[in-house]
């Protein structure tokens, strides 16, 4: 696995299954952990794999890794019932072949992302698009749209955070943590729906 | 654990927004590496944020009415590395965009370090990794999302890797690859040919082609073209002698004067010349300062009753 492909592997083989993983985890996250704890640690373990392309079924591996994160936590806990451990050990990983609608949901989620980018205020949208799609430096973007370099970086990071939060919620549910920011950032109204569904 | 999930996500977005376009400086990358090393969840949130940006970048094909990239839902052949260009083939309508994607691929940042004759250099990273380079040495350091790698080229270097880093350290040396989760290692290749790999503390797994071997403290492996030509345990006294350069001294133990002169030549442009082979065969033991060949010559001259002739660019030791 060459380094350059790592993010691509995550983007194409893991991220599309995150919504399903979170759904599967909903009743399995121990009380002293949060969903984000488990998901973040799962991604951290994936980040240390030396040859991800050799993994035959990334979706199943993603679920297995999340389960092992929870099991490891339970083993380290000072007080844990044997029943809990056995429950987790025996809990079945979902079918490695994802349901057909998962593809459709992922497609919709991507469309939703693009729609959200379109709804950003003009400068925020330009900053985000120029960074992600044109790969300009923060300084170059600042010159183009009349913002400081620092402001551009903060803007891109803030909007990435909002999209990341949406992703965690399945892409369609407003995110508690960023509701206020969203109200400030996202523009609504007709005329900005270039990315609306084509199907 | 440090920070709540939301705080971690905020910081991950901050670093990913910077990293996605490529690091603008080693300092920036090292600050990010420091944050990543604080908590495994940091690395996970960062990897996820990078993947989201990658997804959005790919999703741009919608602009041209193209098909969205979808997960493969198929088994990937083992050992068949994914290629960004292959995966994007057919998805990206614009050649210009394809070129941008190729050019902006986030890769591990590689930094080359060299020392001149007589120079020593210490490189300390925020994650605790410490590299001490001796005279005329060269190495390359690669740090990335899933990479911590030192490639040794020539000279002498001591690597101190603290235990507890989320990512193990890889050390590439003479075609072999050592992996460690903590310890201290000395690597030496002073002349063309084999390389000595010494474990002073901790342990490392040495991979040589299909073979691997775990080396414990005190193991000295001699490597040549990805093969181990010898492996032996050495005493702490011998280790001290091998590593004495870090203290700025030679610890010679019963070596010939010719060998001692060759050692001094690695550190200084001032040469120690020997009058004849009999002088060269004299044996010396003692502790001497690395950068003081004239003082060494004077001490040896006094001990063996030799004549010491100081010239501008060398010092001659000959029989009286």
Kindly describe this structure:
The complex is a heterodimer of chains A (199) and B (320). Chain A has 199 residues and is an all-alpha fold. Chain A has helices at residues 6-14, 18-25, 35-47, 58-76, 82-90, 100-118, 122-132, 138-145, 149-168, 179-185. In chain A, helix 3 (35-47) packs across helix 4 (58-76). By secondary structure, chain B is α+β, with helices and mostly antiparallel strands. Chain B has three domains: 5-101, no CATH class; 109-235, Jelly Rolls (Sandwich); 248-319, 3-Layer(bab) Sandwich (Phage tail protein beta-alpha-beta fold). Helix content of chain B is 29%, strand content 36%. Chain B is built from nine helices and 18 strands. Chain B has helices spanning 5-19, 26-38, 40-59, 84-88, 95-103, 236-242, 257-265, 277-280, 293-304, and strands at residues 109-114, 121-124, 130-133, 138-144, 147-161, 169-173, 176-180, 183-189, 195-202, 204-208, 211-215, 219-224, 227-233, 249-256, 271-274, 283-289, 306-310, 314-319. In chain B, strands 1, 2, 3, 4, 5, 6, 7, 8, 9, 10, 11, 12 and 13 form a 13-stranded mixed β-sheet that branches. Chain B has a three-stranded mixed β-sheet with strand order 15-18-17. A two-stranded antiparallel ribbon of chain B has the order 14-16. In chain B, helix 1 (5-19) packs across helix 3 and helix 2 crosses helix 3. The longest helix of chain B has 20 residues, at 40-59. Chain B starts with a helix and ends with a strand. Classes of the chains: A mainly alpha (199), B alpha+beta (320). Chains A and B meet through helix 1, helix 3, helix 6 and helix 9 of A and helix 1, helix 3 and helix 5 of B.
The helix-and-strand class of chain A reads mainly alpha
Oligomer: heterodimer
Approximately how much helix is present in the residues of chain A?
Answer: 55-70%
Largest interface summary = A-B, 74 and 68 residues
Largest sheet of chain A: none
- The first-level CATH class of the largest domain in chain B is given as Mainly Beta
What is the succession of H and E elements of chain B? Answer: HHHHHEEEEEEEEEEEEEHEHEHEHEE
Quick one: how many beta strands of chain B? 18
Shape of chain B: elongated
| Distance, first to last CA of chain B | 71 Å
**What is the number of beta strands of chain A?**
0
Largest sheet of chain B, if any? 13 strands, mixed
Spans where pLDDT lies below 50 across 5 or more residues of chain B: 63-108
What would you say the CATH architecture of the largest domain in chain B is? Sandwich
Calculate Rg of chain A over CA atoms: 19 Å
User: DSSP strand (E) fraction of chain A?
Assistant: under 5%
The portion of residues forming beta strands of chain B comes to 35-45%
CATH topology of the largest domain in chain B: Jelly Rolls
| Gap from first CA to last CA of chain A | 35 Å
In DSSP terms (H or I, runs of 4 or more residues), the helix count of chain B works out at 9
